[in-house]
Known about the structure:
Elements: E1 2-9, H1 13-26, E2 52-60, E3 81-89, H2 96-107, H3 109-117, E4 120-121, H4 131-137, H5 141-151, H6 160-166, H7 172-175
Antiparallel strand pairs: 1-3, 1-4, 2-3
Domain D-arabinono-1,4-lactone oxidase C-terminal: 92-161
GO molecular function: D-arabinono-1,4-lactone oxidase activity
Pfam family, one: ALO
Amino acid sequence: xxxxxxxxxxENLADTGRDYYEHALSQAPRMIPYKTDDIITxxxxxxxxxxxxxxxxxxxxxxNLISPVNKDNLGEGFSGNFATLEYTxxxxxxxxxxxxxxxxxxxxFIPQFGEKYNVxxxxxxxxxxxxxxxxxxxxxxxxxxxxxxxMDPDCQLVNVLVAKALGIDRCKEQLGLVY
Length: 179
């Protein structure tokens, strides 16, 4: 399964929703290797991963340092309320090649739309950004990193994913990272 949940200011919902949908549809040619002959109706695209679920919800913003709904970098005229879009691709059972493809597909949304719509990913889903982008969406990140370093000087609570996403370079050696 490939899944992301992206938070962004509610004022961007219509444009973000349209662009995400159009981008997802434009990926159909890349899905051809996963096409199946088991087509239920003529309108079915015939892809094993035709089960794409899109969900949306609304969340009040907060002031937590690295929350996906922190209001720290919202400009003038933004309400502080956020919308989310969650895309989930369900691949055929145990088709790991297709699963990795779905995750790669999902990882392309942040580079394409992240800065344009002030998108912040959910921490427990496809997380495809680096320390540079993290500083953009979490203006208080340095404060959080200082607390993290004080509380975890030996990088016991940092994993590769978090180190790369937040640019925690001091933990590279402990984690065996090269990036």
